[in-house]
Amino acid sequence: MSKKLITLTINREQHEVLIEDNELLSNVLHDTLALTGTKYGCGTGECGACTVLVDGDPILSCITLAVTVEGCEITTIEGVAPKVGELDPIQEAFLEQAAIQCGYCTPGMILVARDLLVRNPKPSEEEIREAIRGNICRCTGYTSIVKAIQEAANHGCCCK
Ligand code: FES
Ligand code: FES
Question: What is the predicted pLDDT for the residue at 84?
């Protein structure tokens, strides 16, 4: 398998990475670039733990080849806060609503919520539940997660 040097734009920074043609984005983020906020659960596109945003859209990094996202803007959970040491409104709402137990699903949930609130700033509960349908919380904290997304929406989440 041949290696290839590609440039990935992640959280507004460019990273040159030497990868195999068949290397998955989740591996590159987690293992090569040490962006460990992106979690790895099922590895088969079923749990949502590995969700990142690519050009603003949620994708499952465990089933996405890294070579296919060269030239795109990738956002991981490390890139959602406006500054180091600050939280974005969705992260704050998750804390306030205690919507985090073990936290394994949280990065994916927050990125999916961000996509939802950019597209639909005042979603109904049903729309929130539909948006997080592909993200599994093994701790089953769905009620708090939905409340946190509602709270972020009520505060006019500024996630553009
Ligand atoms: S680890 Fe990617 S969907 Fe489960
Ligand atoms: S908080 Fe544990 S998996 Fe969701």
Answer: 86
Choice from 42, 50, 97, 106 to test ligand 2 binding pocket (greatest atom count within 8 A of CB): 106
Q: In sequence order, what are the residues at sequence separation of 6 or more whose Cβ sits closer than 8 angstroms to the Cβ of residue 38?
A: 26, 29, 30, 50, 51, 52, 61, 76, 77, 107
Q: Is the CB of 59 under 6 A from ligand 1?
A: no
Strand partners, 19: 4
Q: Is residue 64 part of a domain?
A: yes
Instruction: Check if the beta carbon of residue 38 is closer than 8 Å to that of residue 126.
Output: no
Cβ(66) – ligand 1 distance below 6 Å: no
105 with 70, same domain? no
Q: Cα Rg for the chain, rounded, in angstroms? A: 15
Question: What is the pTM (predicted TM-score) of this model?
Answer: 0.95
Asked if residue 43 has its Cβ within 6 Å of ligand 1, the reply is yes
The whole-chain average pLDDT of the chain stands at 95
